[in-house]
């Protein structure tokens, strides 16, 4: 818990420091309108970062094995997945990425729709973030002995030594690389926790410079 509190403080301190610096700069002397606009955009961006951290922390702490069943309702996994895909259409276009739907079967289960959507959202978002322009991302959702969601990308991949740690809260594979990519290091923690609360399994297979394959089983 002490490390968690320290990590949260660190992640919140960075955007707050930027906001404070911009405000002090504005108040110090008169500026041109464009300079005010630039400062306000920076403040807005950092405020959104804080909002994202708070929302993701709430997702991690709100539900537990003791209360999760009370939040279950009938969920159409295929509909939730397609809704998630739709959310990221603009990001896919920005990078000229092709999201290929290999297979999506109609599947209905008792689950928490917020957490199921969080699983899909975070895994699709990660694939987009770490996949170079004009590459492919493939998703599939089907049922045999288990319910399976698989997402595969041709992205930058992850070294094997990091795979056991990447679901830890605020863990970043490479600080230099991570600074270039937006995020707070909570996405995979949310995925792992959400899968766990639904009695599922999360497997991440990755090779550096070749891509990543994530498998969720329920």
TrEMBL record:
EC number, as in UniProt: 2.7.13.3
Pfam families to which the protein is assigned, alphabetical: HATPase_c, HisKA
Broad EC category: transferase
Family annotation (SUPFAM superfamilies): ATPase domain of HSP90 chaperone/DNA topoisomerase II/histidine kinase, Homodimeric domain of signal transducing histidine kinase
Domain Histidine kinase: 7-218
GO terms assigned for molecular function: phosphoprotein phosphatase activity; phosphorelay sensor kinase activity
Keyword entries, A-Z: Kinase, Membrane, Phosphoprotein, Transferase, Two-component regulatory system
GO CC entries: plasma membrane
UniProt keyword Kinase present: yes
GO biological process: cellular response to phosphate starvation
Reaction catalysed by this enzyme: ATP + protein L-histidine = ADP + protein N-phospho-L-histidine
PANTHER family cross-referenced by the UniProt entry: PHOSPHATE REGULON SENSOR PROTEIN PHOR
Name of this chain's protein: histidine kinase
């Amino acid at each position: 818990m002490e490390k968690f509190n320290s990590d949260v403080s660190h992640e919140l301190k960075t955007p707050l420091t930027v906001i404070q610096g911009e405000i002090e700069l504005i108040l110090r002397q008169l500026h041109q309108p464009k300079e005010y606009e630039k400062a306000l955009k920076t403040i807005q961006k950092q405020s959104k970062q804080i909002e994202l951290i708070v929302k993701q922390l709430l997702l991690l702490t709100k539900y537990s094995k003791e209360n999760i069943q009370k939040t279950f309702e009938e969920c159409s996994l295929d509909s939730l997945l397609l809704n998630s895909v739709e959310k990221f259409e603009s990001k896919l276009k920005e990078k000229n990425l092709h999201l290929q739907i290999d297979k999506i079967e109609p599947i209905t289960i008792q689950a928490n729709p917020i957490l199921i959507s969080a699983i899909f959202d975070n895994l699709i978002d990660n694939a987009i973030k770490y996949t170079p322009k004009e590459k492919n991302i493939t998703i599939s959702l089907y049922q045999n002995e288990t319910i399976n969601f698989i997402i595969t990308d041709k992205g930058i991949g992850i070294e094997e030594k990091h795979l056991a740690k990447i679901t830890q809260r605020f863990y970043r594979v490479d600080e230099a690389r991570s600074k270039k990519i937006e995020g707070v290091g909570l996405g995979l923690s949310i995925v792992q926790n959400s899968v766990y609360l639904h009695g599922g399994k999360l497997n991440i297979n990755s090779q550096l410079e070749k891509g990543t394959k994530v498998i969720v089983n329920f």
